[in-house]
Amino acid sequence: MQSGLKLGRRTGESGFTLIELLTVIAIIAVLAALLFPVFSSAREKARQTSCLSNLRQLGLAISMYSQDYDGLYPYMVDPADKFTPQIWSSMPQFQAEIPNIGLVSQVLQTYVKSAELFHCPSDTGFDQEDFTGLDIDPAGTPPNANPSSFKKFGTSYYYRTEIAAVHAGDSTFQTPSQLNVLFDGAGRWHGGRSRQDWRYMVLFGDGHTKNQSFSQLTEEWAMPL
């Protein structure tokens, strides 16, 4: 039998050469690079679906609250109101009441089956509020919404608190289908770093939910109740 090496392999033996092994590794790396964004996108879509489901159920909780309080929507605030109350300086009477008003998760607690309904699975917290650019409580107690808004404050979803401030409800809403009631605390959770890529899961006054951009939600903020 002839002995010797041929391309790093002994004659008659099975196995991979170094070149073949490197080729396989390269192919696997290329496939992983192609498939990872697909899997990541699929996971995020699942989280968005979970968020929208949470918001629909919280919408039912708000409806039950409204039935108990003569058609009025919940008198509650979100962490942005509680810890940066200066955003209500134009309504000093309401601003003065904020320390005594319950947070979203506290007020709706008796109307939901699980506290997890207030948890967006994409919630990674934030340092500044999206729509005011303010730090949550600049004094430092608490300094931010990290490691997540849900863990820090018990809710990932924030409220159009103007509804509470003016004691509004279903019978007073001008355009319920365009009224943003609850939404994600930060658009980065479902989007990219730049503002144009931020996405929010939103509950509207008529009970439907929708995935929206920063600009779309901004337009709804500007609409009268």
Describe the structure using short key phrases.
7 helices; disordered N terminus; elongated; 6 strands; alpha+beta; 225 residues; two-stranded antiparallel ribbon
In short:
A hairpin with a 2-residue loop joins strand 1 and strand 2. The chain has helices at 18-68, 79-83, 92-97, 104-107, 149-153, 162-165, 214-221, and strands spanning 5-6, 9-10, 157-159, 180-184, 199-204, 209-213.
Through-space gap between termini: 92 Å
Described by the principal axes of the CA atoms, the overall outline is elongated
Average pLDDT confidence is 86
Q: Counting H and I runs of at least 4 residues, what is the number of helices?
A: 7
Low-confidence stretches: 1-11
- As for the number of domains, it is 1
Tell me the Rg in angstroms. 25 Å
Number of strands: 6
- Share of residues in helices: 25-40%
The main β sheet shows up as:
4 strands, antiparallel
SS class: alpha+beta
Instruction: Give, in order, the helices and strands.
Output: EEHHHHHEHEEEH
Order of adjacent strands in the largest pleated sheet: 3-4-5-6
Structure description:
This protein has 225 residues and is an alpha+beta fold. It has one domain. The chain is built from seven helices and six strands; from the N terminus they run ββαααααβαβββα. It has a four-stranded antiparallel sheet with strand order 3-4-5-6, with helices on both faces. The radius of gyration is 25 Å and the shape is elongated.
